What we know:
Helix 1 crosses helix 4 (124-150). By secondary structure, the protein is an alpha/beta fold. The relative contact order is 0.18. It has a five-stranded mixed sheet with strand order 3-2-1-4-5. A hairpin with a 5-residue loop joins strand 2 and strand 3 (67-75). It has helices spanning 5-19, 80-85, 88-94, 124-150, 152-156, 162-177; strands at residues 24-34, 54-61, 67-75, 101-103, 114-115. The longest helix has 27 residues, at 124-150. It is found in: Nucleus. Keywords: Hydrolase, Metal-binding, Nuclease, Nucleus.
Amino acid sequence: MPTTLNEQQETIRKFRSIANFPTVIGAIDCTHIRVKKVNADGGQLYINRKEFSSINVQVVCDADLKIMDIVTRWRGSVHDSRIFRECRLKQRFEAGAFSGILLGDSGYPCTPYLFTPLLNPTTPQEERYNRSHIRTRNTVERCFGLWKQWFRCLLRGMFGDIETAKKQLLHVLYYTIWPLT
């Protein structure tokens, strides 16, 4: 995540240029990475709502589709909002570490630092808010698409045992973030 005020302002400027949504510092969402069926105790906890075994990975990206924050430790059955509720990034937002906000989908709670779309917009202003929100938040969806094209194992799934799959995921993350450091 951008740490200095200048970095944060530059990130906000880039997001604003997408659809004129002010003060956005990141787009957040989760994606399921398929894993081989876990037969051990608790294996059913890896089954997601689409009924396949997975690890639920939370990502925050910037307007250039670069991953700024990632959480990889949750089983597939865990809801996106719980992952965010228990991550360090939420604590940093609550402590006032950032001057901007995150954009998330309707699976997240709307808070002073995480904006979600309006479920039933009724005015032209609310519809404009939703259009701008959707276009701006779409960066994280595009980030997932590129990530899964670059690392096809994320698209196909990881089919070793769960510990091997977690190690493979860490290697992919290293090679995803390494060029950025």
